[in-house]
Amino acid sequence: MTSTEFDAKAADSGAGATQQFLNKQGAAADTPPERVSMLAREVLGAVHETIRRHNVTYPEYDALKAWLIGVGQDGEWPLFLDVWVEHVVEEVANAHHKGNKGTIEGPYYVPDAPELGATGSLPMRADEPGVPLLFSGQVRTLEGTPLAGAKIELWQADAHGFYSQFAPGLPEWNLRGCFTADDEGRFAISTIRPAPYMIPTDGACGKLVSAAGWHPWRPAHLHLKVSAPGHDLLTAQLYFPGDPHNGDDVADAVKPELILSPQPAVDGDGEVVVYDFVLDPSSAPGAQRAGLSSTEGR
Ligand code: MBD
Ligand code: FE
């Protein structure tokens, strides 16, 4: 029996996400020891304070220890961190941006997707399920100048909520592609509407969700990376109006500016939506660290 996307297991998507992360360059920041010490002390201090405030017991401590071991065994550190921590890192990193709002990358980005020009269809199966969606727009500077040649990378779940390369049975680059804006900074992408995404319930993250009485859902979303020379990379997600989880995303990554307004296609086949991107000029190197130190003495 060949397996299909519906046979996806937490430990398999976790292993894929872990490998993908380890492939990425520059994962080791050259953080000075004083800063490592400060951050580690404060995080541990918050843990100690929580234990004292709530009289955490040995059985609870052992349950935590077993769960943390499980996060590693299931390869779910990327999932855990991107769902419950990354949104605050993104908030701090991009607070100075004046252009398009961004949001978290999540665990399922894969670089070097097929290059598809300014106009085209994401790679998809001949019988790809889902409502067709024509997504077009323009990439501009803060001053409104079109950014010819801007790169638009798009990756998304399919109409059953699965990502290629992280669920079995899907073609390698299904619903993943890289577009290049034309001379007017414009692009047009044919795809399908993704389904809402449920984080795996059979792994350690799923155990936390059920033990805490939470829900495992993210609203349906398109993932994007938009870039142009001399400009900061924009990592974003776009959402669909009316999704029941736009207001309570498990990953806390929805912003009102990122909700699309799709309209029925005039030819009656699916939906069309226009969304433009405004990129900030490149941040000066070290600007964020300099900004931090100016408030450290307060
Ligand atoms: C996803 O698809 C996602 O976008 C994030 C942020 C976390 C888990 C799965
Ligand atoms: Fe996602």
Please give a handful of descriptors for the protein shown.
about 300 residues, alpha/beta, Protocatechuate 3,4-Dioxygenase, subunit A, six-stranded mixed sheet, disordered C terminus, binds fe (iii) ion, dioxygenase
What does this structure look like?
- By secondary structure, this protein is α/β, with parallel strands linked by helices.
- The protein has a single domain, classed as Aromatic compound dioxygenase (Protocatechuate 3,4-Dioxygenase, subunit A, Sandwich).
- It has 7 helices and 12 strands.
- It has helices spanning 10-23, 33-54, 58-73, 77-84, 86-93, 204-212, 287-296; strands at 119-121, 132-141, 151-156, 176-180, 186-192, 197-198, 217-218, 221-227, 234-239, 263-264, 271-274, 277-279.
- Strands 1, 2, 5, 10, 11 and 12 form a 6-stranded mixed beta sheet that branches.
- Helix 3 runs antiparallel to helix 6.
- The longest helix is centred in the first third of the chain and has 22 residues, at 33-54.
- It is globular and about 65 Å long.
- Mean pLDDT is 93; it is low at 289-298.
- It binds 3-methylcatechol (MBD) and fe (iii) ion (FE).
- Fe (iii) ion binds at residues 106, 108, 197, 221, 223.
Task: Describe the secondary structure blueprint for this structure.
Blueprint: H1 10-23, H2 33-54, H3 58-73, H4 77-84, H5 86-93, E1 119-121, E2 132-141, E3 151-156, E4 176-180, E5 186-192, E6 197-198, H6 204-212, E7 217-218, E8 221-227, E9 234-239, E10 263-264, E11 271-274, E12 277-279, H7 287-296
Parallel strand pairs: 1-5, 2-11, 2-12
Antiparallel strand pairs: 2-5, 3-4, 3-8, 6-7, 8-9, 10-11
Helix pairs in contact: 3-6
3-methylcatechol (MBD) binds at residues 79, 82-83, 104, 106-108, 197, 199, 218, 251, 253.
